């Protein structure tokens, strides 16, 4: 993620608008048409502004205990019609409950909890993660 960890600072990603624009450019450069956006942890700072502005351009959204969910109101989430799979590990007792509390306002959501998995549930329980993700993808139009 630009500007995080060991990546060089990028002026564009300082604001939510800049992060949304950055993600928009990435998707355009990749030529993606109605992708499913999978958003674990820190990537929420990019995915959530994009979802709220351009959710209609996504076939689906899969937040995995993303950061930044409290930055938006229930009303903002309620305006998004993107099919969403809220996915998290039941051992993620810090970020996952906060994300669920906020993301449950998305009208087209369902929830998948991975027993015995922590914050990086896709690493802790990869088979369960892929089963939940594939099940969601198969149900999309």
TrEMBL record:
InterPro entries: AB_hydrolase_fold (IPR029058). Keywords: Cytoplasm. It is found in: Cytoplasm. One of its GO terms (cellular component) is cytoplasm. The keyword Cytoplasm applies. The keyword Cytoplasm applies. Its main location: cytoplasm. PANTHER family: PROTEIN ABHD14A (PTHR46197:SF1), PROTEIN ABHD14B-LIKE (PTHR46197). This is ABHEA protein. It comes from Vireo altiloquus (Black-whiskered vireo). The gene is Abhd14a.
């Amino acid at each position: 993620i630009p500007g995080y960890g060991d990546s060089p600072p990028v002026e564009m990603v300082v604001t939510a608008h800049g992060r949304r624009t950055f993600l928009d450019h990435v998707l355009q450069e990749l030529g993606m048409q109605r992708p499913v956006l999978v958003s674990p942890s820190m990537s929420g700072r990019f995915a959530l502004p994009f979802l709220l502005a351009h959710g209609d351009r996504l076939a689906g959204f899969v937040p995995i205990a993303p950061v930044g969910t409290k930055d938006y109101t229930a009303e903002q989430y309620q305006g998004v019609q993107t099919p969403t799979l809220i996915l998290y590990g039941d051992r993620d007792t810090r970020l996952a409950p906060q994300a669920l509390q906020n993301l449950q306002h998305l009208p087209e959501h369902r929830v998948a909890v991975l027993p015995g998995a922590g914050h990086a549930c896709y690493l802790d329980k990869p088979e369960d993660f892929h089963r939940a993700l594939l099940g969601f993808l198969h149900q999309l139009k």
